[in-house]
Write a structure and sequence with these properties.
Keywords: Carbohydrate metabolism, Cellulose degradation, Glycosidase, Hydrolase, Polysaccharide degradation. The protein is α/β, with parallel strands linked by helices and 487 residues long. The chain has one domain: Glycosidases (TIM Barrel, Alpha-Beta Barrel). Helix content is 38%, strand content 14%. The longest helix is centred in the middle third of the chain and has 25 residues.
Length: 487
C-alpha cells in the first residue's frame, strides 16, 4: 500500500531545538587589553612600554597608527562600564599596564597608576561586574627591554615583584587573576618573527623568552599566593594552537608534532605536566642549551598549582611538511614575516583551510574550539577551564541610520558558543566565556583597521555604538542560554 503525502492547512514550523543552557554561575564576560584601549600613555607618570616604542617606529604598524589615544578607556571607563552593565556582563577581563603601575619595571609602585585600576574595579563592583585582572598583555616597560627584555632571566624576577605590588594594591577588589596573556605571542612574535613588539628576530632569543615568561608566571603565582586571600583564583591564558596535519602521511604528522611542541607544549609541559618535553628540546637543541637555560627548580616553580586555565581560540592551524625543504607562513594565522616564529619547525608549510574566513583571513571553524577544550580537559583532568578570548574581526560599517549590523559576527559567536556548550555536555569543566573584544580597538600591528568589538568605536569622535552582536550577546548572557542568531 502506498501512502499519500500528508497535507495540512498551513505550513509546519521547523522544530525548535531545546535551549542550550549553560551551567549555573557560568561567567559571561568580555575582554580588553591595556595598550589597545586605555590611551593616556603619558598621564600620571606612565612611561613607554615596548608597544609605545614599536608603534612609533616607522613601518611597524599599518599607517603609523599608535595606541596613544586608543579608545580613551582611561578617561571613559565609567561610560564603558555602564555599557557592560547594559549588556548584562558578569565579568570584565582587563589588563594592567605594567608601565602605569611600575614605570621602570623596578622599585615601588606608582600610586597614581594604581589609582586608575582602583577606580576601574570599584566602578565594576558597583555595577555587579567581577573584575578579572591580567598582569601582562604584552606591554613590557621599555626600560626592562633595554636591559635585555624577556630573553633575560632578570625580567622574570622583576615580574614577580610587580605581581606582588599589584596584588597588595588590588587584592581586596580582584578575586580572579591571570598572570600572562598568550606568552607564545610575546616570545615568538616579539622575538622570533618580529611582527610584534619589540620587533626582534632571533630564534634563540624567542626560546629564551618563552622559558622566562614561563618562569615569570611561576614567580607571579608565588607572589600572588603570598599577598592574596586564600579565596583568590589564579590562572594563565594560553593561545594553544589547535594543530591539524594536512594528511595522515608521516611527514605531515611530524610537521604537526613540531608545531605542537613549540606552539603548545613549550608552555603546557612545564605548567601542567612537570617539565619541557624531550622532543621540543631535540628540535631546538641546536639553538639553545636547555640544560643551561633551565635552572634547577625552574620547572617546579613554573608548575605551581593554578585554579583555572584560560584558553584563547580564534582559528585552527593546518600544516604539512615542506616537500622542497623550504617552509612558509603565508597562511600562518599569526602573521607572515620573512623570519619564522617557529624555531625548530621552520620547514613546515601552513595552509588555509577551506571555507569562510574572517577579516583577518582566519578560517572560521568552531570544531577547533570544541577539540581544543576536550583535548585539554583530557590532558589535565580536574583543572577547570575558562575561554578567556574568542571572537572575530569583520568589516563593520556605520549605517546611515546610526546602527552597526554584524550578522557574520553573530554567526561566528553562535557557532563557537555552541561548541563550548557541546564540550560541557561531553564532560569538560568550562567555567566561563569572555568575548574578544568589548570594544573595537588598536589591533596591534594592524592599527585600527581590524574591528573585533561588540561595540563599535567611531575613532574620530570616540562615540560608542553597540553592534547587533552586542544585543545578541546580551540576550545570551541574560538567559544563560544560547540565543538563536535570528532572534
Amino acid at each position: 500500500m502506498t501512502l499519500a503525502p500528508r497535507t495540512t492547512d498551513r505550513a509546519e514550523s521547523p522544530r525548535r531545538q531545546p535551549p542550550q543552557v549553560f551551567p549555573p554561575g557560568f561567567r559571561w564576560g568580555a575582554a580588553t587589553a591595556a595598550y589597545q584601549v586605555e590611551g593616556a600613555v603619558r598621564e600620571a607618570g606612565r612611561t613607554p612600554s615596548i608597544w609605545d616604542t614599536f608603534s612609533h617606529t616607522p613601518g611597524r604598524v599599518t599607517d603609523g597608527h599608535t595606541g596613544d589615544l586608543a579608545t580613551d578607556h582611561y578617561h571613559r571607563f565609567r561610560e564603558d562600564v555602564a555599557l557592560m552593565a547594559e549588556l548584562g556582563l558578569k565579568a570584565y577581563r582587563f589588563s594592567i599596564s605594567w608601565s602605569r603601575v611600575q614605570p621602570t619595571g623596578r622599585g615601588p609602585a606608582l600610586e597614581a597608576g594604581l589609582d586608575f585600576y582602583r577606580r576601574l574595579t570599584d566602578e565594576l563592583l558597583a555595577h555587579g561586574i567581577q573584575p578579572v585582572a591580567t598582569l601582562y598583555h604584552w606591554d613590557l616597560p621599555q626600560e626592562l627591554e633595554d636591559a635585555g627584555g624577556w630573553p633575560a632571566r632578570a625580567t622574570a624576577e622583576r615580574f614577580g615583584e610587580y605581581a606582588h605590588l599589584a596584588a597588595e594594591a588590588l587584592g581586596d577588589r580582584v578575586a580572579l587573576w591571570t598572570t600572562l596573556n598568550e606568552p607564545w605571542c610575546s616570545a615568538f612574535l616579539g622575538y622570533g618573527s618580529g611582527v610584534h613588539a619589540p620587533g626582534r628576530t632571533d630564534p634563540a632569543d624567542a626560546l629564551r623568552a618563552a622559558h622566562h615568561l614561563n618562569l615569570a608566571h611561576g614567580r607571579a603565582v608565588a607572589a600572588l599566593r603570598a599577598a592574596l586571600p586564600r579565596s583568590a583564583e589564579l590562572a594563565i591564558s594560553l593561545n594553544l594552537h589547535q594543530v591539524r596535519a594536512l594528511t595522515e602521511r608521516h611527514a605531515d604528522l611530524d610537521a604537526a608534532r613540531r608545531i605542537d611542541a613549540v606552539g603548545n607544549r613549550i608552555f603546557t609541559g612545564p605548567l601542567l605536566h612537570g617539565g619541557y618535553p624531550a622532543d621540543l628540546k631535540a628540535d631546538t637543541g641546536h639553538l639553545v642549551d636547555w640544560e643551561k637555560l633551565v635552572h634547577p627548580g625552574d620547572e617546579a616553580a613554573i608548575g605551581a598549582p593554578i585554579d583555572l586555565l584560560g584558553l584563547n581560540y580564534y582559528t585552527p592551524t593546518l600544516v604539512s611538511e615542506a616537500a622542497d625543504g623550504v617552509g612558509g607562513n603565508a597562511h600562518d594565522p599569526h602573521g607572515s614575516s620573512e623570519h619564522s616564529p617557529w624555531p625548530g619547525a621552520e620547514h613546515v608549510l601552513f595552509h588555509l583551510p577551506p571555507g569562510r574566513t574572517t577579516e583577518m583571513g582566519w578560517s572560521i571553524d568552531p570544531t577547533g574550539l570544541y577539540d581544543l577544550i576536550t583535548e585539554t580537559a583530557r590532558a589535565k583532568p580536574g583543572l577547570p577551564l575558562l575561554i578567556t578570548e574568542n571572537g572575530a574581526a569583520f568589516a563593520d560599517t556605520l549605517a546611515a541610520d546610526g546602527t552597526v549590523h554584524d550578522p557574520e559576527r553573530i554567526a561566528y559567536l553562535h557557532g563557537h558558543l555552541a561548541a563550548v556548550h557541546r564540550a560541557i555536555e561531553d564532560g569538560a569543566d568550562v567555567r566561563g566565556y569572555f568575548l574578544w573584544s568589548l570594544l573595537d580597538n588598536f589591533e596591534w600591528s594592524y592599527g585600527y583597521h581590524k574591528r573585533f568589538g561588540a561595540i563599535y568605536v567611531d575613532y574620530p569622535t570616540q562615540r560608542r555604538i553597540p553592534k547587533s552582536s552586542a544585543a545578541w550577546y546580551a540576550r545570551t548572557v541574560r538567559a544563560n542560554a544560547l540565543a538563536e542568531p535570528a532572534e
